[in-house]
Design brief:
- By secondary structure, the protein is mostly beta strands.
- The protein folds into 2 domains: 1-30; 33-395, Neuraminidase, CATH 2.120.10.10.
- It has one helix spanning 3-27, and strands at residues 37-44, 51-61, 68-76, 83-90, 101-104, 115-123, 131-139, 149-155, 163-165, 168-169, 176-177, 182-186, 189-199, 209-216, 221-227, 236-245, 252-260, 272-278, 289-295, 302-305, 311-316, 336-341, 351-354, 360-369, 372-379, 388-395.
- Strands 10, 11, 12, 13, 14 and 15 form a 6-stranded mixed sheet that branches. Strands 1-26-25-24 form a 4-stranded antiparallel sheet. Strands 2-3-4-5 form a 4-stranded antiparallel sheet, with no helix packed on it.
- The chain starts with a helix and ends with a strand.
Length: 398
Amino acid sequence: MKPSIFLLCLHLFAFMSLECWVVHAADEEPTYSGDVTDVRTIRHVEQHPQAWRIWQPFIISGNKKNHLTVAYGAMRNGKKDMGDIFATRSKDDGDTWESPVVIFDHTKRQGAVQFCYANPVLYQAPGQDIIWCFCMRCPIAQRNSEESTLAAAFTPDGGSSWSQVEMAMLYTGPLILNAAPIQTEINGSPRFLLPAHRNTLAADPRGSRDHFILSSTSLLEWRLEAFIPQPTRARVFLHEGNIAKGDTEGELKIVMRTADYDQTNLTTSPPQAYSSVSTDGGHTWSEAKPETGLHNAKAKGYFGKSATGSHVYVYNDGPAQGDTAPGFPNGGRTSLRYKTKPAGGVWGKEQTFYHAGIKNSYPTLHEVTPGDYRCVWDSGTATKPRTHIHFGKLRITP
C-alpha cells in the first residue's frame, strides 16, 4: 500500500472511531432523578474541534408538527463565553437530531474585523413563518463577550439555512443577552421587548451594571425603552432576566439572576432572584425587589408563564459555581430544580428537574401545548461543565 493511501485510511479510521465514540457516549445517558423525561444528548464538545465548551442552548418549535430547532454556542479555544453559534433540528419531537449548521462563524471576517459570538436566543413572531436568532457579537480580541453588540439572522426553512441581517441599533452601548423577545403594546402601538444587561463596570471604573429593556416595532431596529430601577436600600447586579406575563391582566414581570453589585464573585445575601413589574406594556418598570421564594446563586434560570396560567421557575440550587458546600463538593451548578406558582397563588415547594451528579446549567424551556414543555440545558461531568447539550421533556400540571 502506498504511504499516502495508508495515511488516508488511518485518518478515516480515526475520524470514524471518534464519531462512533461520540454517538455511543451520547446514547449512554447517566442515571438521573427528576421530573424531566426523554433525556437525550444533542451534541458533544468533541464534535466541535475548535471548541473547549458548548453552552447556552435555546429551543423553539419549528413550523411543522414535532419539529424543533435548538441553537447553541461552541466556545472558541482560548476564549471565555464566545465562539460560534450553531443550530440543529429534530423532526421527531427531540428523539433524534440532525447535524448542526452554522449561524455565526467566528472565522468569517467582516472586512478586516473578526468577531466571536455568544448567547443565542430564538424567536418567532406571531403570524410569521421565519425564525429569528439574536445573539451577541464581540470583537475577537476581547477576553470575554461582555463588550458585545446585537447580531441577528433568520431562517425561512425551519433552521436548514440562515441569513444574517444587520440591525439598526439606536441603542449604542454594549449588551448581554439571555432571553427571547416578547410582544406587547406601548401606548396602543405594537412593540417587541428584548431584555438585556451590561457590565461596563468590569472594565471601566465609571461604568455600571444595569438591566434594561430594548424595544422594536419590526425586530430590525432596536432602541432603549427602559432601565430596571435598582433597589433603593442596596444595589444589586441584576442580569439575565426573563420577561413573561405577570399575575394580573396587562402586567409584565421580569425575574433576574443576581450577584453582589460591587463584588460580583459573591451572591446576594441570601442568594435569591429579583423581580420587577410593568403595567404599561414595558415602558416603565417598578423598583427591583427580592423574590424570597426563588433561589439564585449567580446562575441563569428560566422564568415563564404557561398557557395554563401557572408560572414556572427552573434554577440551580446550592452555592455559586466556584463555591463548595455540604452536598456540593465540586461547587454549584449541578442539580436543576424548579418551582411552579398557580394563577393567583404562591410559589410551591422545590421539585427536581434533573439531577445526575454532574454539572448542569442554563436551562431554557419552550411550551408546545399547555403545560407540556421541551427543554434544553448544558451539561458536563462531575467536575467539568459544559461538555454536552441535553434535551428533555417536562409536563407541568396546574
